Amino acid sequence: MLDMTNCEHLISQLEATIHNPRTMQEGDKLLVGVDLGTAYIVIVVLDQDKKPVACEMAFSQVIKDGLVVDYVGAMNVVKHLKEKIEQKIGIRLTKAAIAVPPGTSKGDSKTHMYVVEGAGMEVTNILDEPTAANSVLNIENGVIVDIGGGTTGLSIIKENQVVYVADEATGGTHLTLVVAGNYKIKFEEAEEYKIDLSRQKEIFPLVTPVIEKMATIVNNHIRNHDVKEIYLVGGTCCLDKIEKIIENVTGIRTMKPKNPFLVTPLGIAMNC
Predict the structure, then answer these.
(1) Measured on CA atoms in the order 69, 76, 35, 270, is the torsion positive or negative?
(2) Whole-prediction pTM
(3) What backbone torsions phi and psi does residue 90 show, to the nearest 5 degrees?
(4) What are the pLDDT digits (tens) for 138-150?
């Protein structure tokens, strides 16, 4: 079983930089990760020792199911976040790594790259999201399930090697739509309901069928592999007790770190 101690320590350090970024000096080497998510776009900055420097994020609907549907909008969000970080840390961001859902075509991967380049950064690496997450988790055997806003992606890892990847279009957006329909409210308001910790017990029964569908997706992809542990990352996995449903459906021990939302963007930055 994975020891989450180091992973959660890094995440706690990164969370601290959201409100208290570190000032850097001209010439300092930075590692930058840009996570173009369906619900949020996140930029994480690390120093050369892979210690957190800054983190900025913005709610955005310019990506759908891992695909860029509003190129100019996505570029403008990334540029805005980049400039906010630069003002806070005192130096420019010039290079970045990015990640895409598993199985994303070369053409769609290039569109992600063009968004970041259009915002003023050279793209040095393109990863798939669960592989990026494993840069933080460092698991040797098991499956990493990245449930974002638009998709559920997974990577099966055996002896430190990725042996299988998959991605399907079911994610947090689908939970938000269920909440919006039940309360007859707008999507944006439903998103706020979903992430409000005080309302999670209230909405949990509503979204449970969608989570069970996600768990079934995972089960279908891992059934022919000897998987003993599932590790959850991605913003949707912040939902309290989501791991219990996935464990019940799959019958496999399921764990998640303290803040699964930040694992993938942190891992992307580590690979810049």
Answers:
(1) positive
(2) 0.89
(3) 90, 0
(4) 999 999 999 988 8
